[in-house]
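Q: What structure does this chain adopt?
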Amino acid sequence: MLRSVITGTGSYIPPVIATNEDFAAHRFYTNDNKPMSTAPAELIKKFETVTGIQERRYATDDSNASDIGTLAASNALMDSGTDPETIDHIIVAQNFGNVIKHTIQTDAVPALASRIKHKLGIYNPDCIAYDILFGCPGWVQGFIQADAFFKAGISKKALVIGTETLSRVIDKYDRDSMIFSDGAGAAVIEYKNSANGDTGLLSACAQTYTSDEINFINMGASYFPGSDPRIRYIKMLGRKVYEFAITYVPAAMKKCLEKAEVPISDLRMIFIHQANAKMDEVIISKFYKLFGIEQIPPGIMPMSIEWLGNSSVATIPTLFDMVKKDQISAHRLNSGDCILFASVGAGMNVNAICYRC
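A:
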């Protein structure tokens, strides 16, 4: 049976480390431009307790999203042993294009996918390169799109990349700025005969909610009093996002697993978007409770948010690459393991993939 199979992965972890202590000198403001009454040190302590984030990674000043996306893509191509000229689609999940350091305008023309194709030196004009905007679930959605192309007979091999430099669009006066980071992850996905017809993508689920949820994550002015209202930064209604995620993500994961006809007992690992450690723990707990299981199995959820922060579209492919290559202790994938990818983000969008290694 033909299925969409990941044949190679790659990631790029930026070298610049920003610890929580680096934010101690920052002065944070509320959304009504008032100084926060809590001291920065206390805010940071509470932030770490809730999110699990201790440090995050930023791209160097001379690199941008397409640069780091190219590095992740190159690593994935090398890992798969794929001739780049045989790639039919390059699908790049991103949200802000290339944001050059110390500038206020994003650069999304040409598409990051076109830039990455150029940087990879791929000449083949039949290799179609395009970007998708789907919030943090973008890389997972790119995988879903590649699978649809394969089944439609349009494509046989795709390079799906998630790359972001969120550090360029954060408001340093907003405490939520401590959440976001930079990074890139990629995978080569091929439509091929799978082992016993049961390897590769087994099912997928995707949803978009745009009623009350449309502005849970958006762009807004800095919280600093008197700031230029024409300059916009990423903003988030944290409580709303949390409540949305713990309600809809577990349900989407359950729907996806049942669609694949995989029993919950066969699930070996969940690669969930690294947005907030506490939120992810609640999502996984609620997911298992939907199956009447109170105790989360040990080792089910590898995490990287503690030292990498939230790099949006890059969190899942980066985490998967590291686990696949035995770079995260206590987590190892084996042939035949059934796993879930699941994400939530601006839109508000939710998606999940059931995949057998």
